[in-house]
Amino acid sequence: MAAILVVAVVGVALVGLNNGNAEQDGSNGSDDDSNAEASNNADSLSATIVLGTETTVNGSAITTDADQSVYQSTSSDGFTIINIIDAGTYTISGTADDTQVLVAAGDGDEVVLVLSGVDITCVDAPAIMIASAYDPETAGEAGVTIDLADGTTNIINGSHVGDNDAALSANVSILIEGGGSLKIVADMEGIETFMHLTINGGALTITSEEDAINANNDGVGVITINGGTIYADSSSGSDGDGIDSNGYIVINDGTVYAFSSGGNTGIDSDLGTTINGGLVFATGRMANEVSASSGQPYISLSFSGALSKNTLVYIVDSEGDCVAAFKSLGSYQTLLFSSSELSSGETYKIYVGGAVSGTFDAYGLCTSCTVVTAGSLQTSTLLT
């Protein structure tokens, strides 16, 4: 017990438990009406691409003819590029090293990439690069959809080049959905968009050296999470947020784990984060304010000093029942938790140390716990 309580933690701030009618800040990312309207439906072309030593398109060897909708080329750095230049739905599977999938479609072209068992590595640039396509420039909408085929496992190991810092990088708004999984390992950022990112489904596991997820258009980019399970972890690096938007973040549903490195935070937005639903567990070294208009209660904790890895923190309600317990995978000083199990106006107490019974998931969260041995009660202030 003494080993646990040796951590000097006093003065926890319960920064918010709010409920009410939430507004989605930044729902319109741009007032520029000059963007081209979609002129091609994504169903206008359907192609099946199987990556490998000899990549095939619809069962035939891929062409090098740049006039075709899908063709192969070689970059100046020597890696293979699978070019997609027209609107359509492209189902991609197979394994490829030193390869990039590049979407360079027209401004009116909608594109769907169906990932159906992809394992792709590119050590010199993003493994999936969305250079151009239709962009409605409205938060929650996208001209490029990445559909994770049901039951499939997809793996992306990617790098960066120039301003495109992520293993999956997009110059336009993108949407991720589906019932499959996507694992991204990145030497800088994991997923990056220069406009908006919407996540409707899928199981995303992202480990990165810098921001795991980033919308980097200052004052414009909106990250909207409507579903899925997201593990965004930049803790393998020295300077990165879990989920970072230079505009807004809106969480409406889904399960979100977000962990940071350096002096950063799990969830960071320049213009505001709104939590309307879902389950959110984020840790970091600094706090990022959550909008008081959020539709779901949340608890934001700021400890006076850093908690070491695996230190137990748990929350109890006014009846003394354990609501949730945390054992972070790394050191942190701030913690954000939001769940439908929290109640507006309820009084919660925070404890550090002690022992609880219950099953912790792979990311250090337990939502069904019982206090076995009481920890140290933290001084806190409830703001309503």
Number-wise, the strands total: 36
Describe the sheet with the most strands. 20 strands, mixed
Structural class: mainly beta
Q: What integer is the average pLDDT?
A: 89
Residue fraction in strands = over 45%
Q: Span between N and C termini?
A: 34 Å
Helix content: under 10%
Compute the CA-based radius of gyration.
Answer: 22 Å
Q: How many helices does DSSP assign?
A: 1
Count the domains. Answer: 2
Overall shape: elongated
Could you describe the 3D structure shown?
Helices cover 1% and strands 45% of the residues. The protein is mainly β. It has two domains: 1-19 and 297-384, Immunoglobulin-like (Sandwich); 23-296. It has a 20-stranded mixed beta sheet that branches. Strands 5-6-8-10-13-16-19-22-25 form a nine-stranded mixed beta sheet, with no helix packed on it.
Précis, in short:
With 384 residues, the protein is an all-beta fold. The protein contains one helix and 36 strands. The protein folds into two domains: 107 residues, Immunoglobulin-like (Sandwich); 274 residues.
Helix and strand topology:
Blueprint (H helix, E strand, L loop, with lengths): L1 H4 L7 E2 L31 E6 L4 E2 L2 E2 L8 E5 L5 E5 L3 E9 L2 E6 L6 E11 L6 E5 L11 E5 L4 E6 L7 E5 L3 E5 L2 E6 L2 E5 L3 E3 L3 E5 L5 E3 L6 E4 L3 E5 L9 E3 L2 E4 L3 E5 L7 E3 L2 E4 L3 E6 L13 E10 L4 E5 L5 E6 L4 E7 L10 E4 L2 E3 L7 E2 L3 E4 L2 E2 L7
Parallel strand pairs: 2-7, 6-8, 7-9, 8-10, 9-11, 9-12, 10-13, 11-14, 12-15, 13-16, 14-17, 15-18, 16-19, 17-20, 18-21, 19-22, 20-23, 21-24, 22-25, 23-26, 24-27
Antiparallel strand pairs: 1-28, 2-3, 3-4, 5-6, 27-31, 28-31, 29-30, 29-32, 30-34, 32-36, 33-35
